[in-house]
Amino acid sequence: MQTPASTTPLQTDYLVKGCGATAMAFVDVMLKETDANFIMVDKRAAPGGHWNDAYPFVRLHQPSACYGVASRTLGHGRTDSTGFNQGLLELASGYEVTDYFHQLMRDTFLASGRVSFHPMSEVMGEPEAIHSGSYAIRSLLSGETQTVQVRKRLVDATMVHTSIPLTHTRKFTVAKDVTCEPPNHLTRLAPQYKRFTLLGAGKTAIDSVSWLLANGAPPESITWVLPRDPWLINRTFFQPGLKHFEQTIGGTARQFEIFASASSVKEVCLQMEAEGSWMRLDPNVWPKMFHGATVTQLELEKLRGIKNMVRRGRVLHIDAHSMQLESGVQPCQPETLYVDCTASALQHALPIDAEQPVFEAGLVRLHMIRTYQPTFSAALIAHIEATLDDDAAKRQLCQPTHMTDTAKDYLRVMAINMRNQAAWNTLPELRSWIRACRLDGFGSTLAQMAKDDAPRREVLARLAAATAPALANLQRLTAHAESDSR
Ligand SMILES: Cc1cc2nc3c(=O)[nH]c(=O)nc-3n(C[C@H](O)[C@H](O)[C@H](O)COP(=O)(O)OP(=O)(O)OC[C@H]3O[C@@H](n4cnc5c(N)ncnc54)[C@H](O)[C@@H]3O)c2cc1C
Q1: Are the CB atoms for 157 and 38 separated by under 8 Å?
Q2: How far apart are CA 228 and CA 19, in angstroms?
Q3: Is 59 in the pocket of ligand 1 (CB under 6 A)?
Q4: How does the average pLDDT of the chain come out, rounded?
Q5: Alpha-carbon distance 270 to 267, whole Å?
Q6: For 300, which DSSP code?
Q7: Which CATH superfamily is domain 3-162+350-397 in?
Q8: Ligand 1: nearest atom to the Cα of 207
Q9: Domains 3-162+350-397 and 173-231+280-340 equal at CATH topology level
């Protein structure tokens, strides 16, 4: 349905396509550092992107302390005293994250008078409009379009390509008499079932298994279909603040030393595991997937209590008696609830197209420029947009990284991260901005460090000394075409 554009065009400096976390992080910095105005558009009904459709027990994987937007604290800086995350910094629930973005839109963005928000709408006119600046916003309900004349740039805040269980399209089929639901319905349906089969090996499946166990489901009632085993990151090694310096900064120094000296991807994996930084579900199964999921040791121990692991590839079809998998058939029991955790979350295997830089005339693409840190990346891109003039210079600072699918991908993106960080360090103003930004976990830690803290300075010196050899060796380790870590 499409009706003609209304006659008076809207005018804006920046038209923002998408109103998820990255869009919010970008606009937040631009509001503070420029006097530009913004039209934000999203197909969803509210700001916050995929968090609006997340399962009820979702929590951040990383501390709230460094998630969200630069200008507003998320959470209370508490340390969890109960549950799988005890002893570590709090992780906001999905409800807290959506509330945070809803309040930010109402109290800061709209209240500024410089932002308007168009929910249930989509941006139209690309790619031609990038040159003319003449776009349209189409209402998904009425079909009506409004012309928007953009003075500066379109901001594409859909680059992370989030895919979540509630809204994705399943790649397997399910017989009519079988119940297979996204984890959004697990809390409501679980009491009606004796058995649960979790499909998928990513963070959503881990969260679902953890939720079932934490709420009293016996481990033997759970079957877990793992197409590939994941490498898991120990969350203890990603905690901002001086209290966690030894794990977080010390762990990064050790990681760089391993990157510098290892002779193969497999050796990196084994050494990272020996350090306690990376973990696997089963010490006898070699993980072939690296999606950056984080867990704690406590959570891992509980997960290891699940003995019914099905490792026969992806599920193709489920009927009342069996699951057909890529390499075999698995008999099934009645009264089983199947939980679909197979959405890809972020586009892990998406290669970054060299023709799609962050900055080009009329356009900003909110790629990640630090891996697994989409909101920090968007905030930093905004600061670069606000403070530098030349697009070529901006591009030098913003080589996009992609999500990771394997350990080898992780090493590739670490090399990009190091190159970006080195470029940022050459500009004192940029370096100070990053240090002061709440979204940069390292900066806040370093800011708390005393100048005469010799032991910690020594760790920083080790980190600095390992960086160049690590980068050189990462390029060598990832140059070969053969598959990684086997
Ligand atoms: C379960 C889960 C937990 C996570 N935990 C963390 C974490 O702890 N830390 C972390 O850093 N990251 C985490 N992430 C990654 C997370 O995806 C990002 O943090 C962030 O929320 C991504 O935001 P986004 O704005 O890029 O994408 P989205 O949230 O997908 O927002 C993009 C928006 O664009 C809209 N859109 C698309 N096309 C158009 C169009 N043509 N016109 C208008 N609008 C359009 C969509 O409707 C959508 O709302 C997690 C992800 C998941 C799935």
Answers
A1: no
A2: 33
A3: no
A4: 93
A5: 5
A6: H
A7: FAD/NAD(P)-binding domain (3.50.50.60)
A8: 1
A9: yes
Number of C-beta neighbours around residue 466 at 10 A: 21
Q: Is the CB of 165 under 6 A from ligand 1?
A: no
| Atom 36 of ligand 1: nearest residue by CA position | 18
* Cβ atoms 127, 52 nearer than 8 A: no
Q: Whose CA is nearest to atom 3 of ligand 1?
A: 60
Separation of alpha carbons 289 and 485, rounded Å: 10
Q: Please identify which residue in the block is written with the tokens 């481990």.
A: 219
Global pTM reads 0.95
Q: What's the token pair of residue 14? A: 């920046």
Ligand 1 atom at minimum distance from 346 CA: 17
The Cα–Cα gap between 390 and 484 comes to 39
**Cβ of 61 below 6 Å from ligand 1:** yes
Q: So where are the chain's domains? A: 3-162+350-397, 173-231+280-340
Instruction: Report the separation in Å between the CA atom of 378 and the middle of ligand 1, taken as the mean of its atom positions.
Output: 12
Of the residues 17, 64, 141, 158, which should be mutated to test ligand 1's pocket, given the most ligand atoms within 8 Å of the CB?
Answer: 158
Per-residue pLDDT band at 3 (split at 50, 70, 90): low
| Ligand 1 contact via 265 beta carbon (within 6 Å) | no
The CATH fold assigned to 173-231+280-340 is FAD/NAD(P)-binding domain (3.50.50)
CA distance 258 to 255: 5
DSSP state of 190: G
Q: How many CB atoms lie within 10 A of CB 370?
A: 19
Whether the bond between 455 and the residue before it is cis, its omega within 30 degrees of 0, is no
Residue nearest to atom 52 of ligand 1 (CA): 345
Convert the pLDDT of each residue in 66-91 to its tens digit.
Answer: 999 999 999 999 999 999 999 999 99
Is 266 touching ligand 1 by the criterion CB < 6 Å? no
Half-sphere exposure of 55 (CA within 13 A, CB side): 27
Residue 65 Cβ inside 6 Å of ligand 1? The answer reads: no
Cα(21) to ligand 1 centroid in Å equals 6
d(CA 160, CA 370): 12
Q: Convert the pLDDT of each residue in 471-485 to its tens digit.
A: 999 999 998 655 554
